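Bumping my old thread because nobody answered last time. Still need a sequence for this structure:
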């Protein structure tokens, strides 16, 4: 017998548990004071990567990554789950205390990048959906 997890859409999870909190953003205000941003960057980058999707540039370095991370909030010292998005065009990070909400947000972010790319990419990237769009991904379309 196979077991499958019933994953609810982000909208349903948000309605039940509340929205993701924006802790970092390259162009918009966040829920945390700007002077705390370096500490959040440090903790999120040093957190445990649970899932990741990456697009590499021609030189082999990452041009874009979306990570789902477990980290310790530097203010509350509580475990939180973050979606860390970075590209050559900008960055943002959101988090939530509930893993299911953040994981659904990660999957939505990965699919949103495919649906409306922020990078200029070759047509070959779109040939087989997410499998060819990202060089590394664990999200299925």
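Sorry it took so long. Here it is:
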């Amino acid at each position: 017998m196979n077991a499958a997890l019933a994953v609810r859409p982000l909208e349903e999870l948000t309605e039940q548990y509340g929205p993701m909190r924006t802790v970092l953003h390259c162009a918009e205000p966040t829920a945390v004071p700007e002077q705390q941003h370096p500490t959040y960057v440090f903790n999120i980058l040093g957190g445990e990567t649970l899932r990741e999707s990456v697009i590499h540039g021609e030189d082999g370095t990452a041009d874009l990554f979306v990570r789902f991370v477990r980290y310790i909030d530097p203010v509350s010292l509580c475990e939180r789950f973050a979606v860390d998005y970075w590209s050559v065009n900008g960055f943002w990070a959101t988090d939530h205390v509930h893993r299911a909400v953040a994981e659904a947000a990660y999957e939505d972010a990965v699919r949103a990048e495919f649906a409306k790319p922020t990078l200029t990419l070759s047509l070959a990237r779109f040939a087989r959906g997410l499998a060819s769009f990202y060089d590394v991904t664990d999200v299925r379309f």
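The two ends are 24 Å apart (CA to CA). Let me know if any region looks off to you.
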